[in-house]
Amino acid sequence: MHDQPSPAEQDDRIDSAILAMLIHDDSPRPWTVDEVVRETGHRNDTTDSLARLYGAGLIHRCGEFVFATRPAVAASRLDFG
To answer: Which of 43, 49, 50, 67 could tie 30 with a disulfide, CB 3.0–4.6 Å?
Structure first.
């Protein structure tokens, strides 16, 4: 029997994937929301995730653009293992 991830775990996975995409290659750049949606293929999940990431202070929103905050980029460079 497969353990299905909880809705919170699914949200965490989506948030993590989108944040990683925004931070990619240590040279974050602004992305349009539509670009992020095209990459993920899921408009509702993506817009919900962007709202959560913004609420957590991990991304900035400027009109149609989103990009990772400096603290989010810095945290991504840390090795917690």
So the answer is: 67
Q: Which residues are CB-contacts of 81 (< 8 A; sequence separation ≥ 6)?
A: none
Q: pLDDT tens digits, residue range 21-67? A: 999 865 668 999 999 999 999 999 999 999 999 999 999 999 999 99
DSSP state of 58: S
The token pair that represents 62 in the structure block: 């400027």
d(CA 52, CA 11): 9
Rounded distance between C-alpha atoms, residue 78 and residue 74, angstroms: 7
Which is it for the CA torsion 71, 13, 9, 53, positive or negative?
positive
Q: How many residues does the chain have?
A: 81
CA angle 11, 13, 19 (to 5 degrees): 100
